[in-house]
Amino acid sequence: MHSALLATHNIVRWLVLAAGVWAVFRVWRGWLSRSVWTDADAGAVKLFVNTLSLQFVVGLVLYGVSPLIRGALGDMGATMKNAPVRYFAVEHVVVMLFAIALGHIGAVRIRKAASNSARFQAATIFMGFALAAVAGFVPWGRPLFPKF
Would the pTM of this model clear 0.70, i.e. be above it? Predict the structure, then answer.
């Protein structure tokens, strides 16, 4: 089960990154060109936030079944001294939760914005920072694609 979840988590990261790049590109372009907020803009943001949520669920289940995490949680003192283990047990989780929170908070701020400009500005800032956090804390040293 662990291998299948890890492979799924690996594949979904590409969906998250692609959806994030697409959403940030659309909203940034809309903000710069002073466009009218459209359903396509809202859809791009919604796709990014939904893929973040999907990745969270897969990651949460993976966190629960991972032998690495089980061992790390057994001795947090040793975990905090071991950078690679600390990364997966603490750092990756905290930053990704922050990114997910940014995405969801941004989605709410977009819906409540009073003008097109305010929607694009909120979307660019929140989705941009969420994408930056995700891209910055993807474990790029691991295989880029799962081996089946």
Answer: yes
